Amino acid sequence: MKLRFAPSPTGFLHVGGARTAIFNLLHARRYGGTMLLRIEDTDVERSRQRHAEQIVSSLQWLGIGWDEGPIYQSDRLDRYRVRARELVDTGKAYRCYCTVEELEAERAEAERAGKQWHYSGRCRNLTASPDDPHVIRFAVPAGVIEFHDLIRGDVQFEGELIDDFVLLRSDGNPTYHLSVVVDDIDMEITHVARGDDHLSNTPKHVVLFRAFGAPVPSFAHLPLILGSDKKRLSKRTGATSAEEYREMGIVPEALFNFLTLLGWSPGENREIFTRDDSAHWFDLAGVNKAPAVFDPEKLLWMNGQYLMRMSADEIYPHLAPFLGEPPHRLDDVRAMIELHKMRARTLRELAEQLATYFADDDAIAYDPETVKKHLKGENLAPRLRALHDALAATEPFEITTSEAALRRLGEAEGVSAAKLIHPLRLALTGKGASPPIFDVAVVLGKERALKRLRRLIERLPELTSSGV
RNA sequence: GGCGCAUUCGUCUAGGGGUCCAGGACGCCGCCCUCUCACGGCGGUAACACGGGUUCAAAUCCCGUAUGCGCUACCA
Q1: Which of A35, A50, A148, A468 has its CB surrounded by the most CB atoms within 10 Å?
Q2: Rounded mean pLDDT of A370-388?
Q3: Residue A40: CB less than 7 A from any atom in strand B
Q4: Which bases on strand B have an atom closer than 7 Å to a protein beta carbon?
Q5: CB neighbour class for A401 (10 Å; exposed up to 12, middle 13-18, buried from 19)
Q6: Residues with Cβ < 8 Å from A322, sequence gap 6 or more?
Q7: What are phi and psi of A39, to 5 degrees?
Q8: How many CB atoms lie within 10 A of CB A116?
Q9: Could you say which residues 52-71 of protein chain A have a Cβ atom less than 7 A away from any atom in strand B?
Q10: In angstroms, rounded to a whole number, what is the distance separating the alpha carbons of residues A33 and A67?
Q11: Dihedral angle at the C-alpha atoms of A372, A373, A377, A381, nearest 10 degrees?
């Protein structure tokens, strides 16, 4: 068994393409088959080497591996020409001398007349010099073309309704139809899983396989991934490339898991699972028929689940690029990550939360809402000074000891611990919400925590006076 | 227009004739936990597109309708 992912390098790796690659990989892994990566760059106008590299890099990032390739179709142009000529020699394809301009004019006229245009097939029985400019068209046989699809079941098309399509362009380059079939034969592909948008191309490929006398592979047409507008996912409705999600701070394992669940389910209410798990359960025949809407909210949730379950050491390599300059060492951020990983849905959010710890102690910005809410009451200044001294006297400075010190003070003063905790949080983080404040204090370190508390106390008059 | 494919909560889905007045997840809304936030726990909201058949029985099978999407290139 052999499967392949065959993107054309005309842009970044689309999430739909990523899912196609995943499904191919999973099916191959499930049945001990091999996976091939093939770059379909026969369209010289639109293909770019940098896109091919970008796609390869996105696949690697996502953890989508392959056993063979990447093979570039542009390296095999001669092979396609040879195969096309074979079909001409056996009368299964023919030279067509119609120019693009002529056909374009015909098409325009048909449209004006409100009619459906079809290629007439008029060059089928023509004999002209092979030296004149021409394309090679396949002579599509009449009759029903039937094939089996692992996902849809039996599908059939009427051969009469399919135009004689071009195999070789006038510049000698193959079209997709030729190169894909020639390659799938040469590379002994047994299962072709690709987007649903190819379903109506498949009868063309089936007749080509037959014309070459090659076995027809099994097909699986994957339902499309839709945007919230229920149309094919496009930039209008959200991020479309794997790269964008990477930049957003999605970890590859989460995106892989999420994409796997779009159009497929392992059953038994399982949602979070590893690549190995899914490779164990997956089967193309179990893929849904209906298209699926990409829900970014659920991706975010799932990414949060992954962050939560990963260790700080696992998160760090992914997080580092988001932390900015100067670089932070793992040992310096491990405790912070541990404290915040269940509070962030993306690496970006996580990095933003950690910024508090890297901030200058004299530059904490106090959230006005929180100031209004928690900096009030009688004797606030003296009480906070007492808190400062109590914490200063705490040795060793740990979560339990600092909390005990604060609670003792609260009792002595006859106020609830909350009356001290909220201002302390504001002092240490500038915000109204944070991880448990004694954890924050310990991560910050005694010196810096006290410094931040002193700064708040100093600025108390201006913060509380005008109410501004 | 032609051809093709599809249709279960807003979204992802389970389900393949009786166990389904339809299960799980995201989101949303309550409550609990609690120093806040998050996590977690508990509960709630919400769906078989429509119409005909077949059958003792249909979300599940058949037909039609509607709607949506895809393709209809010397793009893939």
Answers
A1: A35
A2: 87
A3: yes
A4: 1-8, 10-15, 23-27, 35-40, 68-76
A5: middle
A6: A249, A347, A348, A350, A351
A7: -95, 115
A8: 8
A9: none
A10: 10
A11: -60
Q: Is the CB of A77 under 7 A from strand B?
A: no
Helix, coil or strand: residue A90 = coil
What residues have CB less than 8 Å from A376, skipping those under 6 apart?
A464
Residue A269 Cβ < 7 Å to strand B: yes
Q: What is the largest CA-CA distance in chain A?
A: 107
Instruction: Look up the ipTM and state it.
Output: 0.94
Using the structure, give the distance in angstroms from the CA atom of A264 to the C1' atom of B37, rounded to a whole number.
35
Cβ A265 to strand B below 7 Å: yes
| pLDDT the model gives residue A136 | 94
Helix (H) or strand (E) holding A183: helix A176-186
Find the Å distance, CA of residue A291 to C1' of nucleotide B59: 19
What are the tens digits of pLDDT across the range A21-74? Answer: 999 999 999 999 999 999 999 998 899 999 999 999 999 999 999 999 899 999
